[in-house]
Protein backbone atom coordinates (compact mmCIF):
# COMPACT_ATOMS: atom_id res chain seq x y z
CA UNK A 1 0.00 0.00 0.00
CA UNK A 2 2.88 2.32 0.80
CA UNK A 3 4.29 1.59 -2.65
CA UNK A 4 0.97 2.47 -4.26
CA UNK A 5 0.71 5.69 -2.25
CA UNK A 6 4.27 6.72 -3.11
CA UNK A 7 3.82 5.94 -6.81
CA UNK A 8 0.54 7.82 -7.32
CA UNK A 9 1.38 10.83 -5.21
CA UNK A 10 4.55 11.27 -7.23
CA UNK A 11 2.74 10.84 -10.56
CA UNK A 12 0.03 13.32 -9.53
CA UNK A 13 2.61 15.89 -8.42
CA UNK A 14 4.35 15.58 -11.78
CA UNK A 15 1.21 15.89 -13.97
CA UNK A 16 1.33 18.99 -16.15
CA UNK A 17 -2.23 19.08 -17.50
CA UNK A 18 -5.79 18.11 -16.65
CA UNK A 19 -5.93 15.24 -19.18
CA UNK A 20 -2.98 13.49 -17.54
CA UNK A 21 -4.66 13.85 -14.14
CA UNK A 22 -7.80 12.18 -15.45
CA UNK A 23 -5.74 9.25 -16.81
CA UNK A 24 -4.11 8.84 -13.39
CA UNK A 25 -7.51 8.90 -11.68
CA UNK A 26 -8.78 6.05 -13.89
CA UNK A 27 -5.54 4.16 -13.40
CA UNK A 28 -5.68 4.39 -9.58
CA UNK A 29 -9.28 4.70 -8.36
CA UNK A 30 -11.33 4.08 -11.53
CA UNK A 31 -13.55 0.98 -11.74
CA UNK A 32 -10.63 -1.17 -12.83
CA UNK A 33 -7.95 0.94 -11.17
CA UNK A 34 -5.15 -0.54 -9.12
CA UNK A 35 -6.63 0.50 -5.77
CA UNK A 36 -10.13 -0.60 -6.73
CA UNK A 37 -8.84 -4.04 -7.65
CA UNK A 38 -7.10 -4.28 -4.27
CA UNK A 39 -10.44 -3.47 -2.63
CA UNK A 40 -12.06 -6.41 -4.42
CA UNK A 41 -9.45 -8.68 -2.91
CA UNK A 42 -10.80 -7.80 0.57
CA UNK A 43 -13.43 -10.52 0.08
CA UNK A 44 -10.81 -13.24 -0.02
CA UNK A 45 -9.18 -12.15 3.23
CA UNK A 46 -9.79 -13.46 6.72
CA UNK A 47 -11.98 -11.19 8.88
CA UNK A 48 -8.94 -10.12 10.95
CA UNK A 49 -6.92 -9.17 7.85
CA UNK A 50 -9.93 -7.36 6.42
CA UNK A 51 -10.34 -5.24 9.54
CA UNK A 52 -6.89 -3.81 9.03
CA UNK A 53 -6.72 -3.66 5.22
CA UNK A 54 -10.25 -2.27 4.62
CA UNK A 55 -9.92 1.09 6.43
CA UNK A 56 -6.34 1.49 5.18
CA UNK A 57 -7.44 1.06 1.54
CA UNK A 58 -10.33 3.48 2.02
CA UNK A 59 -7.97 6.04 3.53
CA UNK A 60 -5.58 5.59 0.62
CA UNK A 61 -8.41 6.08 -1.88
CA UNK A 62 -9.47 9.31 -0.11
CA UNK A 63 -5.87 10.55 -0.05
CA UNK A 64 -5.41 9.93 -3.78
CA UNK A 65 -8.73 11.66 -4.59
CA UNK A 66 -7.76 14.67 -2.45
CA UNK A 67 -4.36 14.88 -4.15
CA UNK A 68 -6.05 14.77 -7.57
CA UNK A 69 -8.46 17.59 -6.63
CA UNK A 70 -5.68 19.76 -5.17
CA UNK A 71 -3.49 19.31 -8.25
CA UNK A 72 -6.44 20.09 -10.54
CA UNK A 73 -7.06 23.37 -8.69
CA UNK A 74 -3.36 24.24 -8.82
CA UNK A 75 -3.25 23.63 -12.59
CA UNK A 76 -6.35 25.85 -13.12
CA UNK A 77 -4.74 28.62 -11.04
CA UNK A 78 -1.56 28.43 -13.04
CA UNK A 79 -3.52 28.55 -16.32
CA UNK A 80 -5.44 31.64 -15.16
CA UNK A 81 -2.24 33.41 -14.12
CA UNK A 82 -0.74 32.61 -17.49
CA UNK A 83 -3.78 34.11 -19.25
CA UNK A 84 -3.81 37.22 -17.07
CA UNK A 85 -0.18 37.83 -17.97
CA UNK A 86 -0.91 37.79 -21.69
CA UNK A 87 -4.02 39.98 -21.29
CA UNK A 88 -2.25 42.60 -19.17
CA UNK A 89 -3.46 46.14 -19.69
CA UNK A 90 -2.03 49.45 -18.47
CA UNK A 91 -5.10 51.28 -17.22
CA UNK A 92 -3.01 54.33 -16.38
CA UNK A 93 -2.33 55.08 -20.06
CA UNK A 94 -3.87 58.38 -21.19
CA UNK A 95 -6.92 58.08 -23.49
CA UNK A 96 -6.92 59.42 -27.00
CA UNK A 97 -8.70 62.77 -27.18
CA UNK A 98 -12.32 61.98 -28.18
CA UNK A 99 -14.17 64.95 -29.55
CA UNK A 100 -17.30 63.22 -30.79
CA UNK A 101 -20.30 64.70 -28.97
CA UNK A 102 -21.00 68.26 -27.91
CA UNK A 103 -23.53 69.91 -25.64
CA UNK A 104 -26.24 71.70 -27.64
CA UNK A 105 -26.28 75.47 -27.13
CA UNK A 106 -29.85 75.27 -25.77
CA UNK A 107 -28.73 72.78 -23.12
CA UNK A 108 -25.70 74.92 -22.32
CA UNK A 109 -27.75 78.11 -21.99
CA UNK A 110 -30.39 76.31 -19.86
CA UNK A 111 -27.57 75.27 -17.51
CA UNK A 112 -26.23 78.83 -17.46
CA UNK A 113 -29.68 80.26 -16.66
CA UNK A 114 -30.16 77.69 -13.89
CA UNK A 115 -26.76 78.49 -12.37
CA UNK A 116 -27.48 82.23 -12.30
CA UNK A 117 -30.95 81.94 -10.78
CA UNK A 118 -29.77 79.30 -8.30
CA UNK A 119 -27.34 81.89 -6.97
CA UNK A 120 -30.33 84.16 -6.32
CA UNK A 121 -32.21 81.44 -4.44
CA UNK A 122 -34.43 80.10 -7.24
CA UNK A 123 -34.97 76.35 -7.56
CA UNK A 124 -36.04 74.54 -10.73
CA UNK A 125 -39.69 73.47 -11.21
CA UNK A 126 -41.00 71.23 -13.96
CA UNK A 127 -44.32 70.46 -15.59
CA UNK A 128 -45.58 68.21 -18.38
CA UNK A 129 -45.24 69.18 -22.03
CA UNK A 130 -48.68 67.71 -22.68
CA UNK A 131 -51.04 69.49 -20.30
CA UNK A 132 -54.77 70.07 -19.91
CA UNK A 133 -56.23 73.24 -21.36
CA UNK A 134 -57.18 74.16 -17.78
CA UNK A 135 -53.52 74.50 -16.72
CA UNK A 136 -52.42 76.02 -20.02
CA UNK A 137 -55.31 78.53 -20.26
CA UNK A 138 -58.19 78.67 -17.73
CA UNK A 139 -56.09 78.68 -14.55
CA UNK A 140 -54.03 81.47 -16.11
CA UNK A 141 -57.13 83.63 -16.51
CA UNK A 142 -57.49 82.87 -20.22
CA UNK A 143 -61.17 81.78 -20.55
CA UNK A 144 -62.53 79.81 -23.53
CA UNK A 145 -63.55 82.81 -25.62
CA UNK A 146 -60.33 84.76 -24.96
CA UNK A 147 -58.47 85.82 -28.14
CA UNK A 148 -55.15 84.68 -26.59
CA UNK A 149 -56.25 81.07 -27.12
CA UNK A 150 -56.52 81.64 -30.84
CA UNK A 151 -53.35 83.75 -30.96
CA UNK A 152 -51.29 81.01 -29.38
CA UNK A 153 -51.73 78.68 -32.41
CA UNK A 154 -52.30 75.79 -30.04
CA UNK A 155 -51.71 72.14 -30.91
CA UNK A 156 -54.67 70.16 -29.52
CA UNK A 157 -54.31 66.44 -28.86
CA UNK A 158 -56.57 64.27 -30.96
CA UNK A 159 -59.62 62.90 -29.13
CA UNK A 160 -61.86 60.08 -30.38
CA UNK A 161 -65.47 61.17 -30.81
CA UNK A 162 -67.37 60.83 -27.56
CA UNK A 163 -64.20 60.93 -25.43
CA UNK A 164 -65.25 63.05 -22.47
CA UNK A 165 -61.84 63.60 -20.87
CA UNK A 166 -60.53 67.14 -20.48
CA UNK A 167 -58.93 68.41 -23.69
CA UNK A 168 -55.13 68.20 -23.68
CA UNK A 169 -52.76 70.53 -25.50
CA UNK A 170 -49.04 70.75 -26.16
CA UNK A 171 -48.29 73.55 -23.70
CA UNK A 172 -47.96 76.86 -25.52
CA UNK A 173 -45.84 78.42 -22.77
CA UNK A 174 -44.16 77.48 -19.47
CA UNK A 175 -46.71 79.52 -17.45
CA UNK A 176 -48.82 76.43 -16.52
CA UNK A 177 -45.86 75.39 -14.35
CA UNK A 178 -46.66 78.44 -12.16
CA UNK A 179 -50.03 76.87 -11.34
CA UNK A 180 -48.71 73.36 -10.83
CA UNK A 181 -45.92 74.57 -8.59
CA UNK A 182 -48.08 76.77 -6.34
CA UNK A 183 -50.82 74.14 -6.17
CA UNK A 184 -48.31 71.68 -4.76
CA UNK A 185 -46.01 73.92 -2.71
CA UNK A 186 -48.07 77.00 -1.86
CA UNK A 187 -46.45 80.34 -0.98
CA UNK A 188 -43.87 81.75 -0.53
CA UNK A 189 -41.91 80.42 -3.49
CA UNK A 190 -39.07 81.28 -5.83
CA UNK A 191 -38.68 79.07 -8.92
CA UNK A 192 -37.71 79.00 -12.56
CA UNK A 193 -39.20 76.51 -15.01
CA UNK A 194 -37.22 75.97 -18.20
CA UNK A 195 -38.55 73.69 -20.91
CA UNK A 196 -40.05 73.02 -24.32
CA UNK A 197 -43.16 74.77 -25.57
CA UNK A 198 -45.15 74.37 -28.80
CA UNK A 199 -47.01 76.63 -31.21
CA UNK A 200 -48.15 75.94 -34.77
CA UNK A 201 -45.85 78.48 -36.40
CA UNK A 202 -42.89 78.13 -38.77
CA UNK A 203 -40.77 80.80 -40.45
CA UNK A 204 -37.30 82.38 -40.07
CA UNK A 205 -37.91 83.39 -36.47
CA UNK A 206 -40.42 80.73 -35.36
CA UNK A 207 -40.24 76.97 -34.95
CA UNK A 208 -43.20 74.81 -33.82
CA UNK A 209 -41.17 73.70 -30.80
CA UNK A 210 -39.06 76.19 -28.90
CA UNK A 211 -37.84 76.85 -25.34
CA UNK A 212 -38.92 79.19 -22.60
CA UNK A 213 -37.93 79.77 -19.03
CA UNK A 214 -40.62 80.86 -16.59
CA UNK A 215 -39.75 82.79 -13.44
CA UNK A 216 -42.01 83.02 -10.38
CA UNK A 217 -41.41 84.72 -7.04
CA UNK A 218 -44.23 84.93 -4.50
CA UNK A 219 -44.03 86.40 -1.01
CA UNK A 220 -45.83 88.98 1.14
CA UNK A 221 -44.33 92.14 -0.34
CA UNK A 222 -42.66 91.34 -3.67
CA UNK A 223 -42.93 94.18 -6.20
CA UNK A 224 -42.01 95.16 -9.77
CA UNK A 225 -38.84 96.71 -8.30
CA UNK A 226 -37.69 93.25 -7.21
CA UNK A 227 -38.47 91.97 -10.71
CA UNK A 228 -36.36 94.67 -12.33
CA UNK A 229 -33.41 94.01 -10.01
CA UNK A 230 -33.56 90.25 -10.56
CA UNK A 231 -33.71 90.64 -14.35
CA UNK A 232 -30.84 93.16 -14.53
CA UNK A 233 -28.77 90.94 -12.27
CA UNK A 234 -29.60 87.99 -14.54
CA UNK A 235 -28.77 89.71 -17.84
CA UNK A 236 -25.46 91.09 -16.55
CA UNK A 237 -24.40 87.64 -15.37
CA UNK A 238 -25.73 85.89 -18.48
CA UNK A 239 -24.11 88.17 -21.06
CA UNK A 240 -21.05 88.57 -18.80
CA UNK A 241 -21.29 92.36 -19.11
CA UNK A 242 -21.60 94.56 -16.01
CA UNK A 243 -24.60 96.82 -15.48
CA UNK A 244 -26.91 95.91 -18.38
CA UNK A 245 -29.98 98.18 -18.30
CA UNK A 246 -33.54 97.05 -18.92
CA UNK A 247 -36.55 99.01 -20.20
CA UNK A 248 -40.07 98.11 -19.08
CA UNK A 249 -42.89 98.80 -21.55
CA UNK A 250 -46.53 98.54 -20.44
CA UNK A 251 -48.15 95.52 -22.03
CA UNK A 252 -50.96 93.04 -21.48
CA UNK A 253 -51.07 89.40 -20.43
CA UNK A 254 -54.23 87.85 -18.94
CA UNK A 255 -52.18 86.28 -16.12
CA UNK A 256 -50.34 89.38 -14.89
CA UNK A 257 -51.51 92.81 -13.73
CA UNK A 258 -49.77 95.12 -14.34
CA UNK A 259 -47.85 93.58 -17.25
CA UNK A 260 -44.65 94.67 -18.93
CA UNK A 261 -42.55 93.67 -21.87
CA UNK A 262 -38.88 93.98 -21.07
CA UNK A 263 -36.13 95.17 -23.42
CA UNK A 264 -32.38 95.09 -22.88
CA UNK A 265 -30.00 97.82 -23.92
CA UNK A 266 -28.08 97.28 -27.16
CA UNK A 267 -26.40 99.01 -30.08
CA UNK A 268 -26.36 98.29 -33.82
CA UNK A 269 -23.18 99.33 -35.59
CA UNK A 270 -22.37 98.25 -39.18
CA UNK A 271 -24.81 95.38 -38.77
CA UNK A 272 -23.03 94.33 -35.55
CA UNK A 273 -25.26 93.87 -32.52
CA UNK A 274 -23.75 94.72 -29.14
CA UNK A 275 -25.57 94.01 -25.89
CA UNK A 276 -25.35 96.34 -22.88
CA UNK A 277 -24.34 99.53 -24.65
CA UNK A 278 -25.79 102.23 -26.93
CA UNK A 279 -29.35 103.53 -27.11
CA UNK A 280 -31.09 100.70 -28.92
CA UNK A 281 -33.49 98.28 -27.22
CA UNK A 282 -34.16 94.62 -27.83
CA UNK A 283 -37.30 92.87 -26.59
CA UNK A 284 -36.45 89.75 -24.59
CA UNK A 285 -39.34 88.79 -22.32
CA UNK A 286 -42.86 89.23 -20.98
CA UNK A 287 -43.53 89.77 -17.30
CA UNK A 288 -45.72 91.31 -14.62
CA UNK A 289 -47.28 90.95 -11.19
CA UNK A 290 -49.12 87.62 -10.92
CA UNK A 291 -52.87 88.21 -11.34
CA UNK A 292 -54.95 87.57 -8.18
CA UNK A 293 -57.15 85.16 -10.14
CA UNK A 294 -54.08 83.11 -11.02
CA UNK A 295 -53.03 82.89 -7.37
CA UNK A 296 -56.58 81.89 -6.50
CA UNK A 297 -56.70 79.18 -9.19
CA UNK A 298 -53.50 77.73 -7.72
CA UNK A 299 -54.89 77.76 -4.18
CA UNK A 300 -52.85 80.74 -2.93
CA UNK A 301 -54.69 83.52 -1.07
CA UNK A 302 -54.24 86.77 -3.05
CA UNK A 303 -55.03 88.88 0.05
CA UNK A 304 -51.94 87.48 1.71
CA UNK A 305 -49.51 86.85 -1.13
CA UNK A 306 -48.22 88.65 -4.20
CA UNK A 307 -45.30 88.40 -6.58
CA UNK A 308 -43.89 88.60 -10.06
CA UNK A 309 -43.68 86.20 -13.01
CA UNK A 310 -41.82 86.36 -16.27
CA UNK A 311 -41.43 84.24 -19.40
CA UNK A 312 -38.35 84.44 -21.59
CA UNK A 313 -37.40 82.74 -24.85
CA UNK A 314 -34.28 80.62 -24.33
CA UNK A 315 -33.58 80.18 -28.05
CA UNK A 316 -33.59 83.91 -28.62
CA UNK A 317 -31.09 84.80 -25.88
CA UNK A 318 -28.90 81.85 -26.95
CA UNK A 319 -28.71 83.33 -30.46
CA UNK A 320 -27.85 86.73 -29.01
CA UNK A 321 -25.13 85.46 -26.69
CA UNK A 322 -23.42 83.04 -29.05
CA UNK A 323 -23.93 84.88 -32.35
CA UNK A 324 -26.14 82.21 -33.90
CA UNK A 325 -27.88 83.75 -36.91
CA UNK A 326 -30.68 81.30 -37.75
CA UNK A 327 -33.18 79.89 -35.25
CA UNK A 328 -34.16 76.93 -37.39
CA UNK A 329 -30.59 75.58 -37.45
CA UNK A 330 -30.98 74.78 -33.74
CA UNK A 331 -33.23 71.87 -34.64
CA UNK A 332 -31.72 70.61 -37.93
CA UNK A 333 -29.32 68.15 -36.23
CA UNK A 334 -26.59 69.11 -38.70
CA UNK A 335 -23.36 67.61 -37.33
CA UNK A 336 -21.17 70.40 -38.72
CA UNK A 337 -23.37 72.99 -37.02
CA UNK A 338 -23.40 71.02 -33.75
CA UNK A 339 -19.60 70.74 -33.75
CA UNK A 340 -19.24 74.44 -34.46
CA UNK A 341 -21.74 75.79 -31.94
CA UNK A 342 -21.70 72.93 -29.40
CA UNK A 343 -19.94 72.99 -26.02
CA UNK A 344 -17.43 70.59 -24.44
CA UNK A 345 -19.33 68.08 -22.37
CA UNK A 346 -17.30 68.47 -19.18
CA UNK A 347 -17.54 72.26 -18.91
CA UNK A 348 -20.52 72.56 -16.58
CA UNK A 349 -21.37 76.26 -16.32
CA UNK A 350 -21.02 77.83 -12.87
CA UNK A 351 -20.76 81.46 -11.83
CA UNK A 352 -17.51 80.93 -9.95
CA UNK A 353 -15.93 78.96 -12.81
CA UNK A 354 -17.02 81.36 -15.56
CA UNK A 355 -20.29 80.65 -17.35
CA UNK A 356 -19.01 80.03 -20.87
CA UNK A 357 -15.24 79.54 -20.86
N1 LIG B 1 -46.37 83.18 -21.02
C1 LIG B 1 -46.03 84.40 -21.72
C2 LIG B 1 -45.72 84.06 -23.18
O1 LIG B 1 -45.50 82.94 -23.51
C3 LIG B 1 -44.86 85.11 -21.11
C4 LIG B 1 -45.13 85.58 -19.72
C5 LIG B 1 -44.89 84.78 -18.62
C6 LIG B 1 -45.64 86.86 -19.50
C7 LIG B 1 -45.11 85.23 -17.34
C8 LIG B 1 -45.88 87.31 -18.22
C9 LIG B 1 -45.62 86.50 -17.15
O2 LIG B 1 -45.67 84.92 -24.02
Automatic annotation (TrEMBL):
Positions bound to Mg(2+): 257
Organism: Sagittula salina
CDD domains: PheRS_alpha_core
Domain Aminoacyl-transfer RNA synthetases class-II family profile: 107-349
NCBIfam families given in the database record: pheS
Subunit organization: Tetramer of two alpha and two beta subunits.
A single GO BP: phenylalanyl-tRNA aminoacylation
Family named by the database record: Belongs to the class-II aminoacyl-tRNA synthetase family. Phe-tRNA synthetase alpha subunit type 1 subfamily.
Protein name as annotated: Phenylalanine--tRNA ligase alpha subunit
MF GO annotations: ATP binding; magnesium ion binding; phenylalanine-tRNA ligase activity; tRNA binding
Essential cofactor(s): Mg(2+)
UniProt-listed Gene3D superfamilies: Bira Bifunctional Protein, Domain 2 (3.30.930.10)
Domain of life: Bacteria
SUPFAM superfamilies referenced in this protein's UniProt entry, alphabetically: Class II aaRS and biotin synthetases (SSF55681), tRNA-binding arm (SSF46589)
Record note on cofactor: Binds 2 magnesium ions per tetramer.
Subcellular location: Cytoplasm
PROSITE patterns the UniProt entry points to: AA_TRNA_LIGASE_II (PS50862)
HAMAP family recorded: Phe_tRNA_synth_alpha1
